[in-house]
Amino acid sequence: MVTGILVILFIFLGAFFWRKKQLAQRFNANVKIAVDYMVQEHPGQYSGDRNAKSGVFIFNAERTNDTLKNVVIKKVKPLHSALDVNLEHMLLVSLEGAAAPKNVSVRFKVIKKGAKIDDLKGVHIRISGVLNFKHGSPKDFTANLPIAGLYQVARTAKSVDLAETQVLGDIAELNLSI
Superkingdom of the source (predicted)? Predict the structure, then answer.
């Protein structure tokens, strides 16, 4: 009797871990997501609450399968005890017709008082949701993603050729005449 219960328990645990691995492989085969973060420079910068400390996770998504239309992220859970994400709405990352990677962001809050959030590089985030394809049914996924590091905005100093700008039109001429 005891061995029967142990066999059944072993089968259920094996099926659970097999399903979890299958969901992660499905995600990795269709989309590539890098996670970066930004932390507020002073308390209340994003929320207005001077006692709250928070930041933003930035998901940089790029599809590896051309039939993938979009990714719907339903749940975001940082695997760090001091962080919490209250995802009020689902995140939709539309990848259809996207030549460049798409960025979406979600706020996180530091829930432990006195917690030092200096470097989150390497901390994992568990996300789950749905992959929607052009010709097929939606597929569920779950994935653990490592945080790559601080979000860096690429800033390049480009000179603007006003002769080729159609949007500025008369404004460019006005600025040049002054």
Answer: Bacteria
